[in-house]
Structure formats: C-alpha cells, structure tokens
C-alpha cells in the first residue's frame, strides 16, 4: 500500500502516503540502546500502585490556588500534609509548587531538596529580596512538582523582617511575580502549597497574606482543638486588615486511629463546629507516613499502596474537587485500610493510655465570627 493515497474511516480524510525508505537503519554494537528514565519508571509504578490511570487527571482549577497549611501547634501534621497533598495532586495531573516557610526545613527534607545554610530558599526571598525563580527547585522523582526550600537561616527572618517595609507582604509579592513569570515561560501552576511554621509570627503571617485559602490539619487527639480559637482569631484579623479574600477551605483530621474511642469523638466534635469544612477523608496514623521523610520521600513514593498514601490521595481528590470521596468503593477501601493498619502498620495505642470520653472544650471558639461560611473556590 505504500506510495498510494488511502481513505481512513470514519472521517474519510485523505492521508498522504508515508514515504518508504529502502535503507535499513544501521545499528552497530556501539549504538547505545535507549535507556528507560528511572524517574519515569518510578512514577509509572507509583501510579499503578495507587490504581490511577494517566488518562484520568483531575480537572485543573480555574486559576492557581494558593493554599497555606497552617496551625500554630507543632506536630499536628502540617508538613506531612503539605508534602503528601502536593505529591498526590501532582500524580492527579496538577502542577504544584511547595514553599517551605518553616526554618526547621522538614518539607524540604521530605521532598529531598538541598536546604543547607546558604542554599537560596525562602530566607533569601523574604529578607534578601531574591526572586522565587532563583529559589525554586525541581522535586526529584516527581515531575510537575517544584519546591522552595527553607534553611535554618530562615529562623532569623522573624526578627530581621520586623524592621523591613511591607514586612507581611514579602511572600505575597514574590509569589505573584513568580506566577506571572512562570506562566509566561511555562504553563500555569495549579497549586501553591505553603507549609507554615508552628507559630503565628511573621512567617505564618506572610503565608496567610500570600494565600487565598487555609488548610488546617488537626491531630485527632486530646487537645486537638485547643489553640484553634487563636488561629481563627488571627485569620479573622488578617481577613479584616490584610487579605479579605482569605478563606478556610479545609480542616483535615490527621493521625486518626479508628481503634481508639477518642479519635471518632474528636472527629464528631470538629465536624459539629465546622460542618462544611472538615474533609470526609481522614489520615490514618501509620508508621509508613512517619518513615517516608527519612528516605527523602513522600509516602506516595515510599509506599504507594499503604493506607497513608491512599488516604492522602483521597484527601487531594476531595480538596481539589470539593466532593466527598465517600462512595461504596472508597468506604470498602477504608475498611480494609483500617484492617491493614490494625494488622501491621499502625503504632499500637493502648486503650488505657487514651484519655476517656472527655474532648477538649471548644466553647471558647464559638463566639468567634464564623470564618467558614465563604464558598469554596
Ligand atoms: N498520619 C501519620 N501517621 C504517623 N505519623 C505521622 C502522621 N502524620 C504525621 N506524622 C508524624 O508526626 C510528626 C509531626 O508531623 P509534622 O507533619 O512534622 O507536623 P507539623 O508540621 O505540624 O509540626 C512527624 O514525625 C510525622 O512524621
Ligand atoms: Mg512542620
């Protein structure tokens, strides 16, 4: 058939003949065979293990969503949520940038970004006036995910920024400039996720001024809600004076251990107070989630089939679409996930160690103007 015109059904268009070459390609022993890209293979494995298909990405948001992951309490899962949510969104076809705003640099470690003192990162952007473009690194193993590292130098920023002009606007300006530069040079980013430090100082303030949305991780444990009133009060002040569009778009229950009496009680209590904002997806407490950063990986890379990885994937879907993942299938999956947590990956929690039915009194937060009425963007 070569050399003749043919009609291709069903469109009936004429297709030009493909030129046929008589020359056979020369392959010598020296010709190197194309090597598979290990990053591509690792990504394909991850996608397969998570049961995803490349052809079913999530729809991209109408504009870049700027999300601060904030809670002034330490150890509630901010960093774990920031990096795993970012990785999950990337695997769902989104283009994501993570900005590490914590001088401890835990997000940088989890994403395997060099962040020793002197490496250009958030400190240089906030205090040194450098462009975010100079600080952005590609996250190894996760194409379409970028990160801005934080070194210990950032610890000085809280004090150094005090004397600077527009000190709470620094990150906002840098992000806005970067977004327009990035859009011109590449494609638009879909998410910018900012990992906040465990305080309500100038670093968190910068994050909340730069962001449009706040995602609050709450540890599903005793005292989970303590201090939330302070955070909500701060968000209220920022809305009033600095960033009127700031909205709480998600509260994520982390380190959830369904085998304890306390975790469901805390979850119920939080859902009662924030009925529209608490994600249906909860993140189980599992060893795999806590092990992953020591390998410079997110849990989605470290063990994509683990309950923690699946939970973060479900949380990302829910956060991105605003739709609850509670379908028959995911419910069944979460039951089996619970079983597998109980059987091998969960840290044993003695019932006796768990405080009894008492849940932290959160009446102190009910008189704060409701921050959660604004619609999800
Ligand atoms: N779902 C989870 N299961 C087990 N350990 C977790 C989970 N989420 C977080 N951790 C661990 O809890 C600790 C605190 O989490 P992290 O994300 O660093 O909190 P924050 O950023 O709020 O201080 C870390 O050691 C982390 O590995
Ligand atoms: Mg952290």
What fraction of residues sit in β-strands? 5-15%
Count every beta strand, where a strand is a DSSP E run of 2 or more residues.
Answer: 10
Strands of the widest sheet, in order across it, are 5-6-4-7-3-8-9-10
Which overall shape is indicated by the principal axes computed on the Cα atoms?
Answer: globular
Helix/strand-derived class? alpha/beta
| Main pleated sheet | 8 strands, mixed
Number of helices: 14
Main attributes?
8-stranded mixed beta sheet; 10 strands; binds adenosine-5'-diphosphate; binds magnesium ion; globular; disordered C terminus; 377 residues; alpha/beta; Rossmann fold; 14 helices; 14% strand
Protein model, in words:
It is a single chain. The protein is of the alpha/beta class and 377 residues long. It has one domain (64-373): Rossmann fold, CATH 3.40.50. 36% of the residues lie in helices and 14% in strands. It contains 14 helices and 10 strands. The strands form 2 sheets. An 8-stranded mixed β-sheet has the order 5-6-4-7-3-8-9-10, sandwiched between helices. Helix 2 (78-91) packs across helix 13 and helix 7 crosses helix 8. The protein is globular and about 70 Å long. The N and C termini lie far apart (55 Å). The structure holds adenosine-5'-diphosphate (ADP) and magnesium ion. The site of magnesium ion has 4 residues, from helix 2.
Write the layout of secondary structure elements.
Elements: E1 6-8, E2 13-15, H1 38-49, E3 65-69, H2 78-91, E4 96-100, H3 106-110, H4 122-126, H5 132-135, E5 137-138, E6 145-148, H6 157-160, H7 170-185, E7 191-195, H8 202-210, E8 213-219, H9 228-241, E9 247-256, H10 262-273, E10 278-284, H11 287-291, H12 299-302, H13 307-321, H14 328-345
Parallel strand pairs: 3-7, 3-8, 4-6, 4-7, 8-9, 9-10
Antiparallel strand pairs: 1-2, 5-6
Bound molecules: adenosine-5'-diphosphate and magnesium ion.
């Amino acid at each position: 058939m070569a050399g003749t015109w043919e009609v291709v059904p069903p469109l009936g268009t004429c297709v030009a003949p493909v030129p046929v070459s008589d020359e056979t390609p020369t392959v010598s022993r020296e010709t190197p065979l194309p090597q598979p890209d290990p990053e591509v293979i690792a990504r394909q494995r991850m996608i397969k293990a998570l049961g995803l298909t490349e052809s079913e990405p999530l729809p991209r948001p109408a504009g870049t969503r700027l999300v601060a992951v904030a809670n002034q309490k330490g150890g509630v899962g901010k960093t774990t949520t920031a990096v795993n949510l970012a990785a999950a969104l990337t695997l769902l076809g989104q283009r994501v940038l993570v900005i590490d705003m914590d001088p401890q640099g835990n997000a940088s470690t989890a994403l395997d970004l060099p962040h020793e003192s002197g490496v250009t990162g958030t400190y240089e952007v906030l205090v040194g006036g450098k462009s975010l473009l100079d600080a952005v690194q590609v996250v190894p193993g996760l194409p379409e995910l970028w990160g801005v590292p934080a070194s210990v130098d950032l610890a000085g920023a809280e004090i150094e920024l005090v004397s600077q002009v527009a000190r709470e606007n620094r990150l906002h300006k840098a992000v806005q400039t970067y977004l327009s530069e990035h859009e011109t040079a590449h494609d638009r980013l879909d998410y910018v996720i900012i990992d906040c430090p465990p305080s309500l100082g100038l670093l968190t303030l910068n994050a909340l001024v730069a962001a449009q949305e706040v995602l609050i991780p709450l540890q599903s444990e005793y005292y989970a809600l303590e201090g939330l009133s302070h955070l909500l009060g701060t968000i209220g002040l920022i809305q009033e004076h600095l960033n009127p569009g700031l909205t709480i778009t998600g509260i994520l229950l982390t380190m959830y251990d369904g085998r304890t009496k306390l975790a469901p009680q805390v979850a119920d209590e939080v859902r009662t107070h924030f009925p529209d904002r608490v994600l249906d997806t909860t993140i189980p407490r599992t060893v795999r989630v806590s092990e992953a950063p020591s390998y410079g990986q997110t849990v989605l890379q470290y063990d994509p089939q683990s309950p923690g990885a699946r939970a973060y994937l479900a949380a990302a879907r829910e956060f991105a679409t605003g739709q609850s993942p509670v379908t028959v299938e995911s419910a069944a999956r979460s039951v089996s996930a619970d079983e597998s947590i109980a059987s091998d990956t969960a840290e044993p929690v003695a019932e006796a160690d768990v405080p009894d039915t008492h849940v932290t009194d959160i009446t102190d937060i009910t008189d704060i103007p409701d921050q959660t009425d604004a619609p999800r963007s």
